[in-house]
Design a protein that fits this description.
There is one protein chain. The chain has 75 residues and is of the alpha+beta class. The chain has one helix and five strands. The chain has a five-stranded antiparallel sheet. Strand 3 and strand 4 form a beta hairpin. The radius of gyration is 15 Å and the shape is elongated. The N and C termini lie far apart (53 Å).
């Protein structure tokens, strides 16, 4: 029913805005890809997580994106 679908859409929209308000960048809803801004070696980078990964293990340069993901090995 259309009214129920609209209610579900409103819930999803509210959740997306809640996530974005926390500073998280939603990159792809289909594969569940999100980025978290972080600092590494005096520059902003993104920590990168994809649905199905147990924890945040990757990062990439802001301008590079998913294709430039690297394993977090910062000490």
């Amino acid at each position: 029913e259309l009214s129920k679908l609209l209610q579900e859409f409103d819930k999803m929209d509210a959740l997306i805005h809640k996530v974005q308000d926390m500073g998280i960048h939603i990159k792809d809803l289909i594969i569940g890809l999100i980025d978290f801004p972080a600092w590494h070696e005096d520059r902003e980078v993104y920590l990168c997580w994809q649905a199905g990964e147990g924890e945040v293990e990757y990062w990439h340069e802001v301008e590079v994106g998913f294709s430039g993901r690297q394993l977090i090995d910062w000490e």
